[in-house]
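Residues determine shape. Next comes a sample protein:
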Amino acid sequence: IRNYDEADINEAYQYLSNPKTMYFIENPYTLKYTEEFIHAYGVCEDPLVYALVLKNSNKVIGHVIFHEYDYESIYEIGIIIDTPYQKQGIGYEVLSVLIKYAFDNLDIHKIVAETVEGNDACVKLLEKLSLVREATLRKQNWDHDNWVDEYHYGLLREEVVE
């Protein structure tokens, strides 16, 4: 995980424009929207997203969402990984380290995450990370011509097993 820089825009466009990668997130991004997104949320003073890169090549293969959420002591996490790199344990590896860092070094109270109905891989990942489904917002998102539920997950500091 590292900060985005201007040189990452084309690699970010590769995964943000991939319909399979973006299936449960948003419509695939255009190059222009990718540039705007990276500038607004990644290449800025207080980033909300960070580049997810392969260790051996520094190639951008996705991004990690990590920022304060509502209160200083509550952080949101999330991850987008380009389709060719999914199902390799990268999401679990990255988010488990990030969760530990947040609780141990930032002294936060809670981690939150959200996903939508049908995104079974994300649900499985969040639950493997010990996040608990706290709410289901029924038919909250319009996704691929259907209303789908939105799931809200949370993990409290006192629930983390040392």
